Amino acid sequence: MMEIGDIFEYLPHRYPFLLVDRVTALNVGKDIAGYKNVSINEPFFEGHFPEHPVMPGVLVVEAMAQLAGVLAFRTRGHKPADGYLYYLVGMDKTRFKRPVVPGDRLDMTASITSQRRSFVKFECQAFVDGELACASDILCTERETAP
């Protein structure tokens, strides 16, 4: 399990764009599980949509990509502090099955399906109360940051 302080070591994101609250399971080189508590206080709910707040689908995908990023960092043995970042470079077969609303806990999983050079491909899913909310194959690439 990784709590927020541990997640800070592996993700460069911070409020309001950090979308992983906790990692609940991690098998380095294989898969990861974690969650995001969705609160009405999220800044995107002010405009999406004020009378019917729904978490934007692109942010659901971003949350899954961030969780996948933790797995990639742990698998490759790097951290952002070491001068590395993972960039989201593609997604395939993305489907949204139900809206994510305030009060939901977005339970997410990511499994590595392939690795080639600097690229890592993941099969990701997000659930609310056991019901599939989103699924996507996500592709990330590792890049060194300038010193």
Q: TL;DR of this structure?
A:
By secondary structure, the protein is α+β, with helices and mostly antiparallel strands.
Would you write up a description of this structure?
By secondary structure, the chain is α+β, with helices and mostly antiparallel strands. The chain is built from two helices and six strands, in the order αββαββββ. Strand 5 and strand 6 form a beta hairpin.
Integer tally of domains: 1
Backbone shape: globular
SSE order: HEEHEEEE
CATH architecture classification: Roll
Number of helices: 2
Largest sheet: 6 strands, antiparallel
Helix fraction, binned, reads 10-25%
How much strand content do the residues show? 35-45%
Which labels suit this protein?
147 residues; alpha+beta; Thiol Ester Dehydrase, Chain A; 6-stranded antiparallel beta sheet; 2 helices; globular
Tell me the layout of helices and strands:
Elements: H1 4-10, E1 22-27, E2 31-37, H2 57-76, E3 84-96, E4 105-116, E5 119-128, E6 131-144
Antiparallel strand pairs: 1-2, 2-4, 3-6, 4-5, 5-6
